[in-house]
Amino acid sequence: MTFAKGPRTARRSALRTVLSAGLAAACVASFAASGAAQAAEIGKVGLGLPLLTSPFWESYNKYLPKYAKEMGIDILAPVNSNNDPAQQITDMNNMVNLGAKGIVVGPIDSAAISRALDNAAAKGVKVVAVDVAPTQGTVAMVVRADNHAYGANACKYIGEHVKSGKVVQIMGDLASVNGRDRSEAFRACLKNYPDLSLLEIPAAWKGDVAATALDSLLTANPDVKAIYMQAGGVYLSPTLQTLRRKQMLFPAGDAKHIVIVSNDGIPQEYDAIRRGEIDATISQPADLYAKYGLYYIKAALEGKTFKAGPTDHDSTIIQLSPGMLEDQLPAPLVTKANVNDKNLWGNTLK
Question: Which first-to-last residue range defines the signal peptide (predicted)?
Fold first, then answer.
């Protein structure tokens, strides 16, 4: 049986409803105020992008505001240095002048960036380096994957799928530790496959340079059996266009197919794997670079420190040199067998 509420009971019920709503609103307001206070306490964080002509860095850039919001970090608008080391130094100094208390930056030149790092340190500004480790200067953390493993794993894949012949390595910028690490590791590994011979293209992360050099190389060496691209974000399209123009692009399974392994893990590479145009790529974690770049800059601004050893996010912190630590994030090999894995960041982009 249901009884109708009397006037007094109705008033009490309405009062409880108002109080509950007010309490909920107060909690939300308190949470928001707490987040704002936390952001104000650690100060503004500057974001330095090496370039935005690569789908990899475009993707990284899209993750930054998402994770900054989740962590309650007040960020300045990201600055793109257009692959110019001198401009990157100017950009970082400008961020310091704008009042940034911390900076997350993807270094273009491992040595040149030391000038900006020294200026930041002199002003008490913390810096986290993403993707590339500086060779000098002070950073709170380097967030990076094992670039030696990139080169070695690409070589192993090619060595297992090509028994003999010429292999082309399209290299990155050798002024960057990434370009050096990948190149050196690929060369060292290839010595384990004496029937493979190496041809190299120094392309400095520039797609047009890679395309022109590859065109000439293939004219002189039409019997190339494999290609290793150190950065799919800048080399994928020019390489495939060059092969297509020279009528040398055959799908995997065809006797004339050139085995191609890339680095980055962008959606365009996954599509190329599905079409059989390339065979594999190594997924460089753009999402985790953004997430942990911001994580470590926030920690640095809060006075936290870290030491070498395993982390709680499936990676390992190593000591690069005295006072410089690097969190080496996982970077899986992606082939046709796992290209549709929904856990790969390249399959999560809308």
Answer: 1-39
Separation CA 263–CA 77 (nearest Å): 28
User: In terms of C-beta density within 10 A (0-12 exposed, 13-18 middle, 19 or more buried), how is residue 32 classed?
Assistant: exposed
> What pLDDT does 38 receive?
54
**Dist. CA 257–CA 251, nearest whole Å:** 6
Half-sphere exposure of 214 (CA within 13 A, CB side): 30
Fold of domain 41-145+286-330 = Rossmann fold (3.40.50)
Residue spans per domain, the chain: 41-145+286-330, 147-283
Number of Cβ within a 10 Å radius of residue 141: 25
Greatest extent of the chain over all pairs of C-alpha atoms, in Å: 96
DSSP 93-153: HHHHHTT-SEEEE--SSTTTTHHHHHHHHHTT-EEEEESS--SSS--SEEEEE-HHHHHHH
pLDDT at 40: 56
Among 18, 44, 41, 68, which residue's Cα sits nearest to residue 290? 68
Task: Output DSSP code: residue 84.
Answer: -
Nearest CA to 47 out of 69, 72, 70, 79 is that of 79
**Which residue is it, tokens 């040398």?**
248
- What architecture is the 147-283 domain classified under in CATH? 3-Layer(aba) Sandwich (3.40)
pLDDT for residue 11 = 44
Is 147-283 in the same CATH topology as 41-145+286-330? yes
Q: How many CB atoms lie within 10 A of CB 66?
A: 13
Instruction: Name the residue among 119, 182, 112, 122 with its Cα closest to residue 146.
Output: 182
Q: How much is the pTM? A: 0.82
Residue 12: the pLDDT is 47
Low-confidence ranges of the chain (pLDDT < 70): 1-40, 350
pLDDT given at position 265: 96
DSSP β-ladder status, 196-202 and 141-145 = unpaired
Tokens of 303: 């006075």
